[in-house]
Each structure stands twice: as structure tokens, then as C-alpha cells.
Amino acid sequence: MGRSPCCEKEHTNKGAWTKEEDERLIKHIKIHGEGCWRSLPKVAGLLRCGKSCRLRWINYLRPDLKRGNFSEEEDELIINLHSLLGNKWSLIAARLPGRTDNEIKNYWNTHIKRKLYSRGVDPQTHRSLTATATTTATATMVTTNNKKMNNHSISNLNHDINNKNFHLVNGAEDSNSSSDVTTEELAFHPHNQLNLDLSIGLPSNQPKLSSSTINPENYKKLKQEPQVLYTSQQQGVCLCYGLGFQSNNQKCSCKTMGTSTTTLTGTTATNNNLYSFYQPMSFLESLN
DNA sequence: AAGTAATGCAACCGCCGAGGA
DNA sequence: TTCCTCGGCGGTTGCATTACT
Q1: CA–C1' span, A17 to B11, in Å?
Q2: Name one GO cellular component term (predicted).
Q3: pLDDT, tens digit, for every residue of A19-56?
Q4: Are A73 and A80 in contact (CB under 8 A)?
Q5: Bases of strand B lying below 7 A from some protein CB
Q6: Do domains A1-63 and A72-118 have the same CATH topology?
Q7: H-run or E-run covering A44
Q8: pLDDT for A136-167, tens place per residue?
Q9: Who is most buried in A31, A64, A103, A268, counting CB within 10 A?
Q10: Where are the domains of chain A?
Q11: pLDDT grade, residue A131 (50/70/90)?
Q12: For nucleic chain C, which protein residues have CB less than 7 Å from any of its atoms?
């Protein structure tokens, strides 16, 4: 059974938006707010598909969008987040205020990929290109390891990092990206400084998580069941990943945010590389 | 100056999951 | 439980701009 189209294909404009259309859309959203994209075009007097309106608003018209070039810090953050999350652009974008998933996706494809290649790093696996080639050749040997990796608990991950016997994979489907890593390779690999301490605050009325697994479903869990910290006094959300590249004075301050703060790792990893993000409630909503 | 190739990015397409009926 | 709608996502396309010859 086919789905009905989201809008009438006829009688809708396509292609670049005109200034007038932009103004209509902005005006409508200012008055009525976001949502109900399907009916929006009709109400706003736009000959556009609802999806198109949503996209235009989110990627271009939203007032909180940051314009201009990506900073070096943003570059590195994107690279690190990508190594953790893979092509989950919306999740990556959620951690870069003012940037959209589309923008980051485009930036990744046009700039960062090239940058990583110039560093000799495979942008998909985040491993050295030579190591990737070697891994591909021995792919059959690592399948078992992959299966093990997918069930790795976070504490195991930290353990493995500490023992220089671990590297990240980009999800379960990436069957070529895992193998044993040499010390030399780790020294080369940008993730040799990656701190995976994943500190996620829990609402106090939710049960504490035990040491969760970091299998490929984890990002889904983060998204679908965001384990967030907020109190009635403190409308902040902490979803801090230890991503590296941060100085010591930028430690995550979760521990100061209340008693409900917890950590999934339960490890004693240092906080040297913790990078915290306190997002407004709108971020929370974006995860839902 | 003209033609061509490369690049950047806005927009589209099709699929998926959540949630309501 | 099933069906359907809707919002959202990631991949891809196509056009405008820039760089190069």
C-alpha cells in the first residue's frame, strides 16, 4: 500500500525559495509557531510542500542559526562526534548550537573529508588510511571482534582505551572498521586522546542506569530516552561526552549540577578532556 | 573573454519510527 | 494489533558560483 504524498505534487513550487515565500513563512511561524507542517503551506498561503517549509525554516530561516565559517574548534568537534556517532548528523548538530544537520553534513562532505584525507585519516573509519587498507584485507578475521565490540559495555570501553587495545567503530554495520590496533597506530590515530567518559544526568525520578552498553543502539537510546538532567530550578541539560581537545579548565561541571547527576561509565577516567554542553530545553525537545 | 571543471550548498527524495485512531 | 499520518532523518541531486585553462 503506497503512502499518500505529503502534499499535492501539482500546484506546488519547487526549487529555490523566493524572498516573498521566505517572508510569508517567517511571518506565519512568528504568529503560530512551528509545527503542523502539513497544513502550514495552506494556512500561510504558500505553494510549497510542508516538508519543504520545514526544511527551509530549519536550515535557513531560523533566527538562532549561526552564519559563517566553521571554526577550528567546531571542525574538531564534528570530527570527534562523527567518530562517535557516525553519519548521525542531527545528533551531531544538536551539539553544535546554531548549526544544522544539513549544514554539517555538507561541511563534512566538502571540507572535513578532504581535511581528514590530507591527514591520512579515513573519514569513515577515523583510522589511518594505511590501517584501513590493512583492515579491509583482513576483514574476515575481525568479524568476531566486531560482534564482541557491539556488546562492549562503556566500562569495558574505558578499560580498553586505558590498555590501548581499542578503537571506535562507526556502528554495527561497519564491518570493516574493527581490528586489533597497534600502539603505533593509536599514536597516530586522533582518538588516542579520546576520552569516552559519557556523563549523562538523569532526572531524579528516573531509575539510574546501570553501566549501559555502548552498542550501536546507544545513540538511539540517547535520542529516544534522553537521560537528561534538569530540575525545576535548573533548566539546563547536560549531555557531555569526553571528546578531547579541551583544556583542563573546561571540565564538565556536571558534578555541580545536582545530586541526580550520574555517569554511565562508572570509571575513574580523568576529566581532562571532558567537554560539556549545557543545552537549553529546546535541545531536549529536539531530541524527542 | 570564453569555455570547462570543480566546488559549495540549498533543496528534494524516499525511507523510517512514533504515535494516534 | 493494524493501519495511517506526520515529522524527522540521511543520502542525493542540481544549480549557482568560483577557479582554472
Answers
A1: 9
A2: nucleus
A3: 888 888 888 888 888 878 888 888 888 888 888 888 88
A4: no
A5: 7-14, 16-18
A6: yes
A7: helix A40-44
A8: 544 433 333 333 333 333 333 333 333 333 33
A9: A103
A10: 1-63, 72-118, 129-193, 198-287
A11: low
A12: A 1, 3-4, 6, 15-16, 35-38, 50-51, 54, 87-91, 101-102, 105-106, 109, 286
